[in-house]
User: Which sequence fits this backbone?
């Protein structure tokens, strides 16, 4: 058979396969007027269709991002504590396949590949280290020399089998495998707040696999039950590498020359979780529904042996020639019985009230908590009184169990939708962040409480207005201080207001919206060694966005202006990070930005 004939046959087969396919190409553009150039563009192509019992969705996205600029037009610093997305190219591919074995039985498979790579000429400005609360975050520095630039990768496979009539049950069996890897931006560590001693870059990897079996059944018209089990294994580790401190200092923070080999950035941890659950819904009357459930969960953390980070960094300086003392790992096992109960009562056709109680269970991040631990026999213990030795088997790695309560009301009237709720959460553990980048799990009570509300009012067939309000507070009891201290902004959000006005017709939608955070000056931390309480203030801010979409004769156009008023501010996280991470992770938010996209279906 000739080569041309083979190609022709393949084209015919491809045309038959896609004869019922729908194509959705889309292009999106984003720019900031301060830069005067296109900062981001996105290309996406989606294809879906059905051929007999077989259906499919294929989607591919390529996105290229440039820098981000603040309200003054200055380039924003990359954030070393996060995986920055500035100056990155992203490839994201998704395939979903489905096959109906019978009218009741179905197979589904989902595969995804995500790859985000940075290629930047700009470095984080180290002059932001230890800056005061009143100082502005500096702009990024041009001239970055870094061969190991940050990236983020993810791959996943999900397989699902469904049977709508499995011995009277609706069955769903899911299995999955996911792997992820992320390299962070190098971080200059300044433990004594007067001179950068270590410039460290870390790479985090994880592999997760598991499966879940769920069965739904109707006992009768009023009583429904869901039950099953799930099993999950998460294997994670993080490695670090140092850079030449003198090269970094001489270049003003732009040149990174690797030195030495990789080392443990905390222990590798394998976490296995198994859970059995039962969830039920019982319609007591036409207006009253009761929901209740139970879950039994078991978890085990296998913590590997590792070389303490503090010894890798400090022994060559404080005790040259001294060999590090490894920390022996441990296996921690957990189990818990968790309950939930809720009730929904319809006051009438337009109003209903609800109340819920639920218990939560969380295994701590052992690798992060143990990152700065040292062995009890470590030479560092004798060199400095500030260093306290520990043993992994005695470290506080207790699970965090939370009790949550919620009470609320929802109303749907002719032209008005409104909802309001109050909540209260409590636990006997507190996770604490400090300026030395340490994370501690403390045996102290914590409570978080607040209210939330939202409403939308239709002025006419085309116009509507609305908004939302959220208020959250929290406190933790410090035994050594003998008092309750308010939680920081990392744990509770300042008061938040949103408002909007919208206009919508069949071929056009326009929305003007605002988001406001109030000042927050209640956050506190306590230092046991210094017996001092430190306050952390957050300055409030308001941003306004304008969004619109238009159905054209062919395709749909969407346009937007974010930060319409070009507000000059730092986000809540950035302001908190300025106090916690010595300033380098704190940076200005994005100024006014314009976006435009066009999507076609054929």
Assistant:
């Amino acid at each position: 058979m000739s080569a041309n004939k083979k190609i022709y046959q393949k084209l015919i087969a491809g045309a038959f396969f896609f004869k019922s396919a729908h194509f959705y190409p889309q292009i999106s553009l984003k720019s900031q007027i301060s830069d005067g150039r296109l900062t981001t563009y996105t290309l996406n192509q989606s294809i879906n269709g059905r051929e007999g019992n077989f259906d499919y969705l294929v989607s591919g996205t390529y996105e290229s991002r440039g820098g981000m600029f603040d309200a003054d037009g200055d380039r924003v610093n990359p954030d070393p504590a996060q995986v920055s997305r500035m100056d990155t190219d992203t490839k994201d591919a998704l395939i979903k396949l489905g096959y109906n074995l019978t009218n009741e039985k179905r197979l589904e498979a989902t595969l995804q590949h995500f790859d985000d790579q940075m290629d930047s000429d700009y470095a984080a400005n180290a002059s932001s280290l230890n800056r005061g609360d009143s100082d502005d975050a500096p702009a990024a520095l041009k001239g970055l020399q870094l061969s190991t630039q940050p990236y983020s990768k993810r791959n996943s496979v999900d397989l699902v089998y469904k049977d709508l009539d499995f011995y009277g049950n609706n069955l769903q069996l899911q299995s999955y495998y996911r792997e992820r890897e992320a390299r962070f931006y190098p971080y200059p560590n300044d433990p004594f707040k007067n001179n950068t001693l270590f410039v460290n870059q870390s790479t985090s990897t994880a592999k997760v696999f598991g499966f879940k079996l769920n069965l739904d059944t109707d006992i009768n018209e009023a009583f429904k039950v869901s039950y099953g089990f799930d099993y999950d294994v998460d294997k994670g580790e993080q490695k670090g590498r140092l850079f030449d401190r003198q090269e970094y200092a001489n270049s003003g923070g732009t040149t990174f020359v690797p030195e030495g080999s990789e080392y443990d950035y905390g222990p590798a941890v394998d976490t296995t979780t198994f859970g059995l659950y039962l969830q039920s819904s019982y319609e007591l009357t036409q207006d009253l529904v009761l929901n209740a459930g139970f879950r039994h969960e078991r978890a085990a953390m296998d913590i590997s042996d590792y070389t303490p980070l503090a010894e890798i960094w400090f022994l060559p300086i404080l005790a040259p020639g001294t060999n590090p003392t490894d920390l022996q790992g441990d296996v921690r096992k957990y189990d818990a019985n968790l309950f939930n109960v809720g009730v929904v009562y319809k006051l009438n056709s337009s109003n209903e009230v609800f109340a819920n109680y639920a218990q939560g269970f969380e295994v701590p991040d052992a690798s992060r908590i143990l990152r700065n631990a040292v062995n009890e026999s470590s030479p560092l213990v004798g060199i400095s009184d500030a260093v306290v030795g520990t043993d992994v088997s005695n470290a506080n790695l207790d699970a965090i169990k939370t009790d949550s309560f919620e009470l609320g009301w929802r109303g749907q009237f002719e032209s008005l939708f409104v909802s309001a709720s109050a909540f209260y959460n409590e636990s006997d553990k507190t996770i604490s962040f400090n300026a030395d980048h340490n994370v501690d799990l403390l045996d102290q009570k914590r409570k978080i409480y607040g209210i939330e509300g939202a409403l939308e009012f239709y002025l006419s067939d085309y116009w509507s207005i609305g908004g939302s309000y959220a208020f959250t507070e929290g406190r933790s009891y410090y035994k050594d201080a003998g008092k309750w201290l308010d939680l920081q902004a990392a744990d509770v959000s300042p008061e938040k207001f949103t408002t909007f006005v919208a206009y919508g017709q069949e071929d056009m939608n326009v929305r003007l919206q605002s988001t406001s955070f109030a000042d927050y000056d209640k956050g506190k931390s306590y230092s046991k060694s210094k017996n001092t309480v430190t306050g952390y203030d957050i300055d409030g801010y308001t941003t306004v966005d304008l969004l619109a979409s238009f159905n054209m004769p062919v395709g749909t156009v969407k346009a937007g202006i974010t930060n319409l008023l070009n507000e000059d501010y730092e986000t809540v996280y950035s302001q908190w990070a300025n106090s916690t991470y010595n300033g380098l992770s704190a940076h200005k938010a994005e100024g006014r930005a314009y976006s435009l996209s066009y999507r076609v279906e054929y």
